[in-house]
């Protein structure tokens, strides 16, 4: 939503309606909260400065400042030094099962969210010694290296760095769509995987890509996926935003207890 549309929406909500009760700053805060909850103001959206919004709505600057402060205290807005006031980039937490192998795209679609990918880098070259060992490849067998930012409804959630042998994929595949869909289409669908989770903090580069603060918590997930015949088809390192995901597992008591 651009500035003009925001002003129009706020004006249409009757901030000065005499039938409404409560101070003006509360009404403004409620109107902004409504726009956020309705999805009209997306996470990360920049809001007008206090003076600009006050003049546009014919309100006192103190009224706007107090409304902004209330919304910052509740977590709906955030202030970025030198940049202004933004709709908070914090997201609704999601639970992800540790026992089900699925692609990011399939998982987001199952939640009714729109998945997307932004390619950060893409190259075809030879594997490192560690990758050769993990993937069971000779040192001269080419691999696709695909680094992508994964988004849901336009919100950045994870950085994926995948390494896949070209023989399973084709060097013209792998991009903005699901990598697992591409593997399945080529007849090499992963059926099982081993994942390792580690709690980490984000370096400045990764934090900037995910639109969070440097040092923000994240989950590093290393995954090795296999085909039905046990050949390794994918090695991926992913950084998931710590404020967005809870990974859960169901445990059963063994018969020996």
Keywords:
elongated; 6-stranded antiparallel beta sheet; alpha+beta; 2 domains; Arc Repressor Mutant, subunit A; 257 residues; Chorismate lyase; 10 strands
Structural class assignment: alpha+beta
What characterizes the major β-sheet?
6 strands, antiparallel
The CATH architecture designation of the largest domain is: 3-Layer(aba) Sandwich
Name the average pLDDT: 84
- Helix proportion of residues, in percent? 25-40%
Beta-strand fraction estimate:
25-35%
The top-level CATH class of the largest domain is Alpha Beta
SSE pattern: HHHHEEEHEHEEHHEHEEE
Number of domains: 2
What is the terminal-to-terminal distance? 58 Å
- Sequence of strands across the biggest β-sheet: 4-5-6-9-8-7
CATH superfamily of the largest domain: Chorismate lyase-like
Basic shape = elongated
Radius of gyration: 23 Å
Number of strands: 10
Low-confidence stretches: none
**CATH fold descriptor of the largest domain:** Chorismate lyase
Description of the molecule:
InterPro entries: Bact_HTH_transcr_reg, Chorismate_lyase_/UTRA_dom_sf, Tscrpt_reg_HTH_GntR, UTRA, WH-like_DNA-bd_sf, WH_DNA-bd_sf. GO terms for molecular function: DNA binding; DNA-binding transcription factor activity. Keywords: DNA-binding, Transcription, Transcription regulation. The structure is a single chain. The radius of gyration is 23 Å and the shape is elongated. The chain has two domains: 3-87, Winged helix-like DNA-binding domain superfamily/Winged helix DNA-binding domain (Arc Repressor Mutant, subunit A, Orthogonal Bundle), CATH 1.10.10; 94-248, Chorismate lyase, CATH 3.40.1410.10. Strands 4-5-6-9-8-7 form a six-stranded antiparallel sheet. The mean pLDDT is 84. Helix content is 30%, strand content 30%. It has nine helices and ten strands. It is of the alpha+beta class and 257 residues long.
